[in-house]
Amino acid sequence: MNQMSKFVENFKKMFTTGQITFGIIFFIVFVVIMFFAYRQDKPLHQKFYKGNYKVLLFFLLFVALLFLMKFFLKR
């Protein structure tokens, strides 16, 4: 039995079919609503949040640096 089938079996034991269905439908509806909300607010985001990608880039680089430090200092 491979890892994926073990995961699926454990997943089926933890949740009923109704719970899994609800979770999938909730996720899809949530993503659709967030997409339309973002489209509606896009002009405001372009006006007030210029340069936010720099903050995101710095944060991602910082997290990557932490992982690299952990990896190299562990040895």
Description:
This protein is mainly α and 75 residues long. The chain has one domain. The chain is built from three helices and no strands. The longest helix has 32 residues, at 17-48. The protein is flat.
The total beta strand count reads: 0
N to C succession of SSEs: HHH
Question: How much helical structure, as a percent, in the residues?
Answer: over 70%
Label the structural class.
Answer: mainly alpha
Rg over C-alpha atoms, rounded to the nearest angstrom:
20 Å
**Global shape:** flat
Strand count, sense and barrel status of the largest sheet are: none
Count up the domains: 1
Strand percentage: under 5%
Low-confidence stretches: none
Q: What is the arithmetic mean of pLDDT?
A: 88
What is the distance, rounded to the nearest whole angstrom, between the alpha carbons of the first and last residues?
33 Å
- State the helix count: 3
Topology:
Layout: H1 3-14, H2 17-48, H3 52-74
List the defining traits of the structure above:
75 residues; mainly alpha
Summarize the structure.
The protein is mainly alpha-helical and 75 residues long. It has helices at 3-14, 17-48, 52-74.
